[in-house]
């Protein structure tokens, strides 16, 4: 079974230039953000102000994107060698097939996937180091008491 996720039109201020309306529209439609901005700017020039009013209305009507990267579960030590890779492990990689589609070029996607696997490997090495340490053995013996 495939997981169905419904997209919701939201503005994304963190990715936007002014209020994130074009960034949100680009993510909703799956088109590159720069192309949405070019279309929007062309609409402003040729429509006589309709697109300015529509942008301001969308700025006030659309909700902000509330996604925040969170860490869930597992052993979480900030000093752990794999902690810096934890945010990159869960990042989805979208490869674009056409110039106008949002996503990454295949070469960049390959680099991102390789970086994710390197991060996973570092995390596994850290866990193996901890599990084979005397500290882990001592804690396990204390817990058995």
Strand content: under 5%
Q: Using DSSP, what is the number of strands?
A: 0
Radius of gyration: 22 Å
- Indicate the mean pLDDT: 77
- Note the overall shape: elongated
Poorly predicted runs are 68-78
Going by helix content, strand content and strand pairing, the class is mainly alpha
Instruction: Estimate percent helicity.
Output: 40-55%
What is the string of SSEs from the N terminus onward? HHHHHH
- How would a crystallographer describe the biggest sheet? none
Give the helix tally. 6
Overall domain count: 2
Distance between the termini: 46 Å
SSE topology:
Layout: H1 21-29, H2 33-47, H3 50-61, H4 86-89, H5 106-131, H6 134-144
Helix pairs in contact: 1-2
Outline the structure in words.
It contains six helices and no strands. By secondary structure, the protein is an all-alpha fold. The chain folds into two domains: 7-68, no CATH class; 83-144, no CATH class.
Core attributes:
2 domains, 145 residues, mainly alpha, elongated
Brief synopsis:
The protein is an all-alpha fold and 145 residues long.
